[in-house]
Amino acid sequence: MLTSSLSQLGAALRSKKISSVELTQLYLKRIAALNPELNAYITVNEELSLQQARAADTQLALSHTHALTGIPIAQKDIFCAKGWRTTCGSKMLSNFIAPYDAHVIEQFNRAGAVNLGKTNMDEFAMGSSNETSFFGKVKNPWNRNSVPGGSSGGSAAAISARMCAAATGTDTGGSIRQPAALCGISGLKPTYGVISRYGMVAFASSLDQAGPMARSAEDLSLLLNAMAGFDARDSTSLQREPEDYTRNLNTPLNGLRIGLPKEFFTEGVHSDVANAIESAIAEYKKLGARIVDIHLPNSSLSVPVYYVLAPAEASSNLSRFDGVRYGYRASGYANLAEMYEKSRAQGFGAEVKRRIMIGTYVLSHGYYDAYYLQAQKIRRLIAQDFVEAFKQCDVIMGPTTPTTAFNLGEKNDDPVQMYLSDIYTIAVNLAGLPGMSIPAGFSNNGLPIGLQIIGNYFEEARMLNVAHQYQQVADWHTRSPQHIEV
Amino acid sequence: MLLSIDDVFKIARLARLGLTEDEAQIAHSQLSSIFGLIAEMQAVDTHGIEPMSHAQDISQRLREDTVTETNQRELFQSAAPQVKNGLYLVPQVIE
């Protein structure tokens, strides 16, 4: 069961080979065994999970089913789920029981999926290593001394260690794709606006986008079918006809034009990563694809631009945490201002405070034009590079990250080095494009390597097709970490 | 642009973040290196470029001005640090 795809699990559930309760218990047992070491989950609630599993079994008995009915799925702890503790990896929300469901959670509930638990993450999704979580770091299942990536590191680690059938993530600057690459799994960040942000704790609202994380592209397409859709409660949710994201999976890749941006293949890329990406591209050529050299001249500016815009939006979004309506309140204060300052000083971790301060500064009087406005202008230049590039190619490929998983603690004291680990993923968020990462090999020391696939707006089905066809001829996505029994 | 320790305290005050002297020292050095990274932007000629505030160039959707929420005060206030008679309690602000 632990190696089955979502469609295989669905078939086993519908043919009564296994019940949802049994499958949920199987995963809960694995979580109990592996989580003390890996720390992939912040909250597990057997009672709530099994309640949903029993309801799913009733639906299955009546044959009222969806592709995901009865399947246990882990939810990143950024999504509000009614009755579940929803912490966003922060002390600020460590006791927050969500009073309502996020749209994503509603969609999974409607499909009859089981919420298996809330996965660990960098605090307020701010981080690239999962080390900023108030609930402790997550370990990479492939090497316990390495980071799993972030911010959706708990979800990525849980999938790679087979502690869930699939999971959700969110991606503001690479937070689905980078941990997917570092943990050897598949992850997709859709076009901005495809999945509702309602009930998803806000970090940088013009960049935040939820997406599925799983072992294969086929699994991702089933999850995206459930997650996508218009929601009036998110003012940036896009009104579009529903799509079946599985529809193109089996289309041959003859004539596919793959754009390779020279800016993604510089000396900054580790040789093991470069070699794996080259081999994957060679495989695509065998599948009938054609290579086109493209340029993204402004992409090198995406990290500085992002570290103006994302903190600016975060400083505004996180002003709601004031110790009044919900969240942490410090004890011992003389007046209202001191209550705010103490609650926020004690409730937020160092990285979150850093970003709030950057954002406050770039938005402050006298600096707005030089920083915030300049960053928004360069954001347009970065987006226009992609518009030009997609005139010549169907998808863009490159490494998801410059290196494999780095060591726990390695970049903790140097925020700039940490920020640069997202150098290939951030431009995609700035442009609002869909991007994904799929496993494409291993380094000499046995750590996973991710291939990034970037598509044009709303080309998710095409990207999933491109990824799925590769996964028919490569088996990287089926590998599981040594020392973890499956 | 060089950031001073006073700037760091000023930013923290604007953001309502209490900061000790030690924390301010660390924040000063880290923020300075981050602003060093951000400074790369200044060399770019953006004359005549329209700022991009959002991923999709679409206008804000409007809806009918009707009531869509129901009153769930008790449920929502159950998450509050301090409430009394349906009101959020904060330190006195008017003498």
Automatic annotation (TrEMBL), chain A:
Positions annotated as active site in the UniProt record: 76, 151, 175
Q: Which GO cellular component terms, listed alphabetically, does the Swiss-Prot or TrEMBL entry include?
A: glutamyl-tRNA(Gln) amidotransferase complex
GO terms for molecular function, please? ATP binding; glutaminyl-tRNA synthase (glutamine-hydrolyzing) activity
The UniProt catalytic activity note for this protein reads: L-glutamyl-tRNA(Gln) + L-glutamine + ATP + H2O = L-glutaminyl-tRNA(Gln) + L-glutamate + ADP + phosphate + H(+)
Metal-binding as a keyword of this entry, yes or no, is no
Superkingdom of the source? Bacteria
Alphabetical keyword list: ATP-binding, Ligase, Nucleotide-binding, Protein biosynthesis
Q: Does the keyword Protein biosynthesis apply?
A: yes
A biological process from GO: translation
Q: Which residues cross the membrane?
A: none
What EC number(s) is this enzyme filed under? 6.3.5.7
Q: Which residues form the Amidase domain?
A: 22-464
Q: Outline what the protein does.
A: Allows the formation of correctly charged Gln-tRNA(Gln) through the transamidation of misacylated Glu-tRNA(Gln) in organisms which lack glutaminyl-tRNA synthetase. The reaction takes place in the presence of glutamine and ATP through an activated gamma-phospho-Glu-tRNA(Gln).
NCBIfam families tied to this protein: gatA (TIGR00132)
Family to which the UniProt record says this protein belongs: Belongs to the amidase family. GatA subfamily.
Complexes and interactors = Heterotrimer of A, B and C subunits.
Q: What is this protein called?
A: Glutamyl-tRNA(Gln) amidotransferase subunit A
Q: Which organism is it from?
A: Candidatus Nitrotoga fabula
TrEMBL record, chain B:
Matching Pfam families, A to Z?
GatC
Q: How does it assemble?
A: Heterotrimer of A, B and C subunits.
Question: GO terms for biological process?
Answer: glutaminyl-tRNAGln biosynthesis via transamidation; regulation of translational fidelity; translation
Enzyme Commission numbers on file = 6.3.5.-
Q: What class of enzyme is it?
A: ligase
Domain of life of the organism in this record?
Bacteria
Query: Which function does this protein serve?
Result: Allows the formation of correctly charged Asn-tRNA(Asn) or Gln-tRNA(Gln) through the transamidation of misacylated Asp-tRNA(Asn) or Glu-tRNA(Gln) in organisms which lack either or both of asparaginyl-tRNA or glutaminyl-tRNA synthetases. The reaction takes place in the presence of glutamine and ATP through an activated phospho-Asp-tRNA(Asn) or phospho-Glu-tRNA(Gln).
Q: State any single GO MF term.
A: ATP binding
Q: Which reaction does this chain catalyze?
A: L-glutamyl-tRNA(Gln) + L-glutamine + ATP + H2O = L-glutaminyl-tRNA(Gln) + L-glutamate + ADP + phosphate + H(+); L-aspartyl-tRNA(Asn) + L-glutamine + ATP + H2O = L-asparaginyl-tRNA(Asn) + L-glutamate + ADP + phosphate + 2 H(+)
Q: Where is the signal peptide?
A: none
Establish whether keyword Protein biosynthesis is in the entry.
Answer: yes
**Gene name tied to this protein:** gatC
Question: What is the name listed in the Swiss-Prot or TrEMBL entry for this protein?
Answer: Aspartyl/glutamyl-tRNA(Asn/Gln) amidotransferase subunit C
Q: Please state which protein family the record places this protein in.
A: Belongs to the GatC family.
UniProt keyword annotations, A-Z:
ATP-binding, Ligase, Nucleotide-binding, Protein biosynthesis
